[in-house]
Write a structure and sequence with these properties.
Helix content is about 45%, strand content about 10%. The chain is of the alpha/beta class. It has one domain. The chain has a 6-stranded parallel sheet.
Length: about 230
């Protein structure tokens, strides 16, 4: 029996994408994950996902805090497997080698998902790229006003990875759930680019589970990407 391709494996599932800070998030990942699991369980008890859930990660290396630790706990708590989306080597050659592959059952490149959008959802990739570029310009203008340096070049790559992952997964699977790991999202984080999918109409607000349940913890992530 032929083994299904990574895209076929993904298509059989309902994708769950979790967005949040990387290792500079000092909160207990188990506590954060428990909030996310509770919120997802409450949502899905009313509106169950149409297919088995698959947690889609985006290449963060494992750390004891932040998104990579949180997604491990969520996967274990929900009893689900994970899929990995990675940047191609010609974009970031360090991304795939450093990615956390915990409970991973399939792996897909960014270029593959970008091709899916170009083929199956004409105009979507251009809308995402334009939206990311516009917001980068706006954010860097605000940083200049605040006396801060421009965001580093990799922000564009990871913002595109984040938004293309969600939109392509939705297109491939027919459904999507996005969960955030914090209530307050820094304007200078990669996570803040979630507005691109929303504002372009490619992601619906009803598909996003906003985090609630913990006090605000102000963090300045401007020196590191937060996918």
């Amino acid at each position: 029996m032929q083994k299904p391709s990574a895209l076929q494996q993904l298509q059989r599932h309902h994708p769950l994408v979790i967005e949040g800070m990387s290792g500079y998030d000092k909160r207990d990942p188990v506590t954060v994950a428990s909030v996310i699991v509770r919120q997802l369980t409450d949502r899905w008890s009313v509106n169950p996902p149409p297919k088995p859930v698959l947690l889609v990660t985006q290449g963060d290396p494992y750390e004891e805090r932040g998104i990579s630790a949180i997604t491990r706990v969520v996967a274990d708590s929900l009893g689900i497997f994970r899929a990995l989306i990675v940047l191609d080597a010609d974009i970031a050659d360090y991304h795939s080698p450093n990615a956390d592959r915990y409970k991973n059952i399939c792996e897909i490149s960014y270029s593959t998902l970008a091709y899916v959008l170009q083929t199956d959802l004409p105009g979507a990739l251009t809308a995402i790229e334009d939206g990311v570029d516009i917001r980068l310009t706006e954010k860097n203008a605000r940083r200049t006003e605040e006396g801060k340096p421009a965001l580093q070049h990799y922000y564009r790559d990871f913002a595109l990875l984040q938004e293309v992952t969600k939109v392509a997964c939705k297109q491939i699977c027919g459904s999507l759930t996005v969960a955030h790991t914090s209530r307050e999202i820094s304007d200078f984080s990669v996570s803040s680019f979630y507005r691109v999918g929303l504002d372009s109409g490619l992601i619906d607000a009803s598909e996003i589970v906003s985090f609630s349940g913990e006090p605000r913890q102000p963090i300045d992530p401007h020196t590191r990407p937060a996918c």
